[in-house]
Specification:
- This protein is 4% helix and 46% strand.
- The protein is mainly beta and 238 residues long.
- Strand 10 and strand 11 form a beta hairpin.
Length: 238
């Protein structure tokens, strides 16, 4: 994914987090520790802070995810946020005070059409939904699905890992976002989404990415996902 800010704007890359880092330092798995209910598991990425005088900001996240069982067999989903103030879940699996901390990112998995009518109807449960999501500030019910598509679960057969890329750009508190999910072995694109004119709900200057797995539905066990971070990059422009 490429981004080309105006040549009038002088770029200052504040943090280039993951490129060149050892794989073992970036790998982690998430399993919700709690009983069924509105809860989940999350992990923070590296923090950055918006400098004074910034005209434009970008956040780019690229991660490989192993979660085939979760995506094919459960009613749960994975979420990733850029531009957040903190992570959505605490160590016990409960929502944090300002959850889900006001960022912008994606959801991947089963997304309830009744709660989010922008997602395609999937009454036979044969699809995986992929969406741009605006995460609320201090409101566990306030997040919005902005652009939602789906792809067949059969596309995951024999696929160990997926690669998810998320790019968010903000001018002031108005942002645009685009994201894709692909097979990292064949480079087959499974889905892509984008949205513009997104209000940034995070009222602070903290710019943190987070990764999460939900446990919102009463199912026999908690589903896990493993993550390999390939890139986390935050860049302000003046």
């Amino acid at each position: 994914m490429t981004w080309k800010p105006s040549t009038v704007i002088r770029p200052l890359v504040v943090s280039l987090f993951a490129w060149g880092a050892s794989a073992s330092a970036q790998d982690f798995s998430l399993t919700p520790p709690c009983a069924p209910g509105l809860c989940g598991a999350s992990q923070m990425g590296v923090a950055a802070t918006k400098p004074a005088g910034t005209l434009l900001e970008t956040h780019y996240i690229e991660v490989d995810i192993a979660a085939t069982t979760l995506l094919q067999s459960s009613s749960e989903h994975i979420a990733i946020s850029a531009f957040a103030n903190g992570q959505p879940f605490d160590a016990s699996g409960a929502f944090t005070t300002t959850a889900p901390n006001g960022g912008i990112g994606i959801a991947l998995g089963r997304i309830d059409t009744a709660a989010h009518p922008s997602c395609p109807l999937d009454s036979s449960n044969t699809k995986v939904e992929f969406a741009i999501e605006q995460f609320a500030w201090s409101d566990i019910y306030g997040s919005r699905i902005l652009h939602c598509v789906s792809f067949n679960k059969s596309a995951l057969t024999g696929v160990w890992k997926l690669r998810v890329s998320v790019f968010v750009e903000c001018v002031g508190t108005t942002c645009s976002a685009s994201a894709s999910v692909e097979n990292p072995v064949t480079f087959a694109l499974l889905a892509s989404v984008s949205s513009t004119g997104i209000p940034l709900a995070n009222p602070n200057t903290t710019r943190r990415p987070w990764y999460s797995v939900t446990n919102f539905v009463d199912e026999p066990f908690n589903y896990s996902a493993s993550f390999w971070k390939r890139a986390e990059m935050y860049a302000p422009y003046f």
